[in-house]
Amino acid sequence: MDVLYQDQHIVVIDKPAGVLSVPGRVLKDSVTSRLQQAGLDVLVVHRLDCATSGVMIFALDAASQKNLNRQFQDRVPTKYYQALIAGELSADDGLVDLPLICDWPNRPLQKVCYEHGKPSQTIWQKLESFQLQQNLINRILLKPITGRSHQLRVHMKALGHPILGDAFYATDSVKALSERLCLHAWKLKLKHPLTENWIEFEANLPF
């Protein structure tokens, strides 16, 4: 697990795919527990899905955690993800604006619900296209405006283009195109909790 940045107040890592952000009820291994085992008294600020890789920030003191929590609550940070999706896109960019809610009978899955769902918006942009096993694949940039659980995965499914390797939302054929979920938290920009200066972190693309 690579540490991208560390000072007295924060530590930023490149979270591996397939590792929990925080310990679960049964599975205790997580990036949080690994950092704690390495001697860092980390405090959780935000989470990434277990299957998602990329930039994740932790606080190292209570004041920094409070500041960063407020930033995420007020949507101060800018988050950029990259993903791979299959199929011909009808446009080169767009906005998905679909309310989401937990699909309780099938949790942890989420679903679109116009009646009870929470507002959820994702900006997307096609970066490139290529062929994989005779399938047209698009690399896309995703900028979530809101931060709902599984938001990017459900929004891409709703767009008609689930993310490659998505065990929850992809069709069997799209799921089979990758052994991992092709969703990566590529860049994170926010204010340092002490100096209030803008800082930006980037995790190398794994796919």
Features of this protein?
single chain; 207 residues; alpha+beta; Pseudouridine synthase; two-stranded antiparallel ribbon; globular; PsdUridine_synth_RluA-like_CS
Description:
By secondary structure, the protein is an alpha+beta fold. The protein folds into two domains: 2-76 and 190-202, Pseudouridine synthase (2-Layer Sandwich); 79-183, Pseudouridine synthase. The protein has four helices and twelve strands. The strands form two sheets. Strands 1, 2, 3, 4, 5, 6, 9, 10, 11 and 12 form a ten-stranded mixed β-sheet that branches. A hairpin with a 3-residue loop joins strand 1 and strand 2. The mean pLDDT is 96. One of its GO terms (molecular function) is tRNA pseudouridine(32) synthase activity. It catalyses: uridine(746) in 23S rRNA = pseudouridine(746) in 23S rRNA; uridine(32) in tRNA = pseudouridine(32) in tRNA. InterPro entries: PsdUridine_synth_cat_dom_sf (IPR020103), PsdUridine_synth_RluA-like_CS (IPR006224), PsdUridine_synth_RsuA/RluA (IPR006145), RluA_PseudoU_synthase (IPR050188).
